[in-house]
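Dear Dr. H.,

I hope your travels went smoothly. While you were away I took the liberty of generating a structure for the chain from your last submission, since the lab meeting agenda had it listed for discussion. I wanted you to have the full record in hand beforehand rather than looking at slides cold. The sequence, exactly as received, is reproduced here:
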Amino acid sequence: MFPHLNIRSRLLIQWIFLVWEFLHVFADSAYCPGACFCPSLTKNVYCSRKSLLQIPNGIPADTIQLNLNDNPFSVTTLQRSNFSFYTRLEQLFIKGCGIEYVSLDSFADLPKLKWLDISKNRLKAIDDYTFRGLTLEHLFLNDNPGIQLSTNAFGGLRTTGLYIHECAISSLAIEVFKPLNGTLKALWIDKNKIETFGTEWLYLFRKLSHVRLGNNPFHCNCELKWLFDFYNNDQNNQNKIPSKEEPSCRSPPNLRGKDFGALTEDDFTCQLPVFKNVDLIFEESVGKLTCLASGDPVPTIHWIKPDNSSETFPPKPNLVQIKDNEGVMYISNPHSVSNVKYQCVASNPAGNVTLSLNVFWPTHYPRDVGIPDTPKPEKPPTLKPTTQATTLSAKIEEKNSKTIFQKQPKPSEKVYVINANATKAGMSMEHRLSPSEESPDYTVVDIIGAVVGTFILTLIACVVIFHFFYRHHEKLFRDHPPPVNEKSPPVNNFSPAEKLLLQNNQV
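The corresponding predicted structure, in token form, is as follows:
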């Protein structure tokens, strides 16, 4: 270095460089916030567990690693302005700071960021494109119970590791992870509340090199058989899932607590839908058709109308433990036709079951319902305003491997019908409405009044009859007194000695 200078000059220059290095290191330490620790000769700033209410001032602009873990921040929203000065930041840790929301593009000024940890906060949701523009190695969102991931939460993000375990998540849509298909290698979704995965997840799991699924309450039926096959049929797949994170079953009850390694394909079965209840309620201007069916998995209900149009009622999401689904369809002007046919179809992966209902409306309606006495034959009869309803209810029960339909009339409702037939295979059912089969509409008060009235009338009749009988008997006795035998007085009026004396006198 500097060969043309003498020894003294060279020593002076070296001394200047040493002083400059010392001043540079001193300057770096001087810019470290008072509550934080900044090791010398590093670009790291450690501010964890310092009871900070916000990100402290004075953090060097060339910081590479910033640790803010476990501070009770008073401002619970992260914004772009919080990090826009730290463009060289590679690792950012904000764990356990009570963060509830991350604004869009909060990290847009951190092009070198590789590690981002915002776990153990109170994040409610991750909105679309929150992390766009980032190329990360690891993104930690775990331990945020109840967090909701929007469909494009990871839109514009590239990361090799994603950790969302212990978030109490009950369901995940595969669309959320599609933006990560090209880069994601490790996915931790263990210790959540996920009960099932659809087969669309198979493509993503095949692309991963590491996945954790354990400690989820899986419902092991035929819908989850693909995951069992994925785990057991390939040794490489077992290496993707650590043995301590092996999936296990929470339901059905006979498989509760069993790991996938202890099961067979025959354990993953589904149950054919079974109809539990069918109700038809028709009023003067609207009709309500209700079909209730159960199965495993929960069946989808389809109501097929007479014109072959249909209404579909899919099962409610995230309700694996509930086996029932109900389809309620409303129809307008139900009396406009005399012969209509409806079909209720319950379907799930185990198969379809169909219930057919033929409803024949009467040509003459009961007068007390408000139907004209002589309806015109060319037009259907029109109901007058009334609170009465024509109801048809069919109750379905399973008994001895047979499906039985029972009539269940509701109080204070008119019930016309019922001719119900059903078989396990056909599941057909016919109903004919006839005014001659109408049941009288009595209430409890009416019945009690009738009984009490009958008793009082009977009692009054008995008193009157007894009175006349007694007066008549008394008159007969007065007009025709019985003859008196003076020689033979009643024996029962004398003592034994007197009786003997009378007998001797007679002799």
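Two observations you may find useful: Residues 22-29, 364-441, 484-491 have pLDDT under 50 and may be disordered. DSSP finds six helices and 25 strands in the chain.

With kind regards,
E. W.
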